[in-house]
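The protein record filed here:
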Amino acid sequence: MNLWLPTPTDLTLLPDEIHVWRIELDQSEPQLQNLAATLSSDEMARAERFYFQEHRQRFIAGRGILRTILGRYLSIQPLQVQFNYQHRGKPVLADAFANTGLAFNLSHSQGLGLCAVNCTRPIGVDLEYIRPMSDLETLAKRFFLPREYEMLRSLSPSEQQEVFFRYWTCKEAYLKATGDGLAQLEQVEVSLTLTEPAKLQISEDWSLFELLPANNYVAAVAIENFDWHLKCWQY
């Protein structure tokens, strides 16, 4: 389990640092109202399209807290944060903030979210709640490479669940950092064991960090180059 530190009063992001924020998405009604007031009209329209109230509230919390976090790095109000969207829908900061170099990525699962921030390189984060899946082997055979699939099959059912989601988060974190979609999932090879951290088996230089943000959760952060210092904050 990673050590999630309280938010510092003086928040500084150094060039060799990655900041990962743990976000509780189940907020009180007053908090949700405050967060909703920071969203743009298109974000509120998107929130209203969720059928279930729980999903709508978690979207508002995630986006509002993301704006609050980015606003701290940019020294502006949350409402002033502006986004552009890449062709696969990935949000990035608008061109007006290009000179800051600030890059971020957001992932959420159930009532938890993670936001990863860096000031020099595109970054990807993925978070998954470990849950039983009836089609686990079918998905692994479709999206994993033969060595990964065979490694998974050699484990007990309870071990398979955790390792499946470890593979999945590592692959997706990398694809989110590069901007590629899930169609490339089976082309990203990851090496891991029950006791050793995961590594990306690719020709380029990439760092991969596995995180345990809470019980029954796994997560991964991917970023180009090495020698990064990871700091984990609790929002």
